[in-house]
Amino acid sequence: MNIHEYQAKELLKGYGVRIQEGIVADTPEGALEAAKKLNAETGTSWYVIKAQIHAGGRGKGKVKETDSNGVVLAKKLEDVSEKAKNILGGTLVTIQTGAEGKKVNKILVAEDVYYPGASEPKEYYLSILLDRAKGCNVIMASTEGGMDIEEVAEKHPEKIIKEWVDPKVGLQGFQARKVAFKLGLEGNAFKEMVKFITSLYSAYIGSDASQFEINPVLKTSDDKILAVDAKVNLDDNSLFRHKNLAELRDLAEEDPLEVEAGKSGLNYVKLDGNVGCMVNGAGLAMATMDMIKLSGGEPANFLDVGGGANATTVEAGFRIILQDPNVKAILINVFGGIVRCDRIANGVVEAYKSIGDIPVPIIVRLQGTNAEEGARIIDESGLKVSSAITLKEAAQKVRAAIA
Ligand code: GDP
Ligand code: MN
């Protein structure tokens, strides 16, 4: 589960990680109030207004309606509400949102931390994630902060520092010092970075996160180390023991169809194609999507109905797929291993009847226990549904349906 930057910073702060302070707002007036409060608390008189969406690249991204960037600086209190107004309610398009962009419902009004001083402020990159192959957590750091880290990794792999932490042993002091040293820090900034990494690692473990990405981590002109941005990804399977974190979920950030599917226990991911598919098992779903492509179509979604598919799950799946206006045909590909094919076939027929007239052709490929009987039920149903036993047959029928 992803959370917003302002929530992530709150979480980090709770573990003693120094952050760029800010106050969240959802109206231009609220933004001005937030700025005043921030001025009283931190003494700052420059403010950064940051769109809160579940996507990065906001600084370079643009709000469609106003052409404002997703992260802007206000050097006067009087400018805050106007600049907030240009972001709030708008559609922010960044390199990570896709062309349709994301609606901005909240902004974070933050203190400016790039103030001038004894040295130039400098941006670093720091992340912690799970290295499944090594069975370890890995801390990744770079002096190339603020940049697109994938690009750094590709062009200058030597600029990415990696330190693996055995979760059984935990982060050792020397490891945090090693990372800070390799980042070229010294004096107070070195000590601050060690503290930053140590508290960040405790936050990562304490919140059962699967990924933390702090880009940029800033060394201020007076040698403080703090998080300017924070991307936190929590492990869904751990949320049962973090009720307070589970509450941070923002459904407005998720695809409505995916949320609805989740309620029915379906694993659905919306895609851009024209052939809807409903499959049991993730592996078979992937293979089915390949098959749709090979037959000249494009999958409209990934949908795994799970092992125990029945009329209720099939109906829920149908309803979700049919809400996608791009769907020109539906392919149901089910392996009757745990569940018998005749049961699935009856489920499809029942679901069809319950929904009423389905405007697109449906191809049902059932294989496994009682496959023939399943095919017979489909063919004799009198509905606009055709059956297939082999994948090849199913592919041909999909091709014919979208031609
Ligand atoms: P992202 O673009 O979605 O990754 O959002 P970030 O939170 O990383 O902010 C984008 C950029 O805004 C940063 O890389 C900084 O260059 C800039 N920025 C953020 N906070 C401040 C600030 O306090 N002062 C100034 N001058 N720039 C800031
Ligand atoms: Mn960032």
From TrEMBL:
Domain ATP-citrate synthase/succinyl-CoA ligase C-terminal: 278-398
Record-listed Mg(2+) binding positions: N215, D229
Note on how the cofactor is bound: Binds 1 Mg(2+) ion per subunit.
A Gene Ontology term for the protein's cellular component: cytosol
Reaction catalyzed: succinate + ATP + CoA = succinyl-CoA + ADP + phosphate; GTP + succinate + CoA = succinyl-CoA + GDP + phosphate
EC number: 6.2.1.5
Transmembrane segments: none
Taxonomic superkingdom: Bacteria
Entry keywords, A to Z: ATP-binding, Ligase, Magnesium, Metal-binding, Nucleotide-binding, Tricarboxylic acid cycle
Sections of the chain in a coiled coil: none
Amino acids binding ATP: K50, G57, R58, G59, V113, E123
Binding site for substrate: N280, G337, I338, V339
Protein family according to the UniProt entry: Belongs to the succinate/malate CoA ligase beta subunit family.
Record-given protein name: Succinate--CoA ligase [ADP-forming] subunit beta
Phylogenetic classification of the source organism: Bacteria, Pseudomonadati, Bacteroidota, Cytophagia, Cytophagales
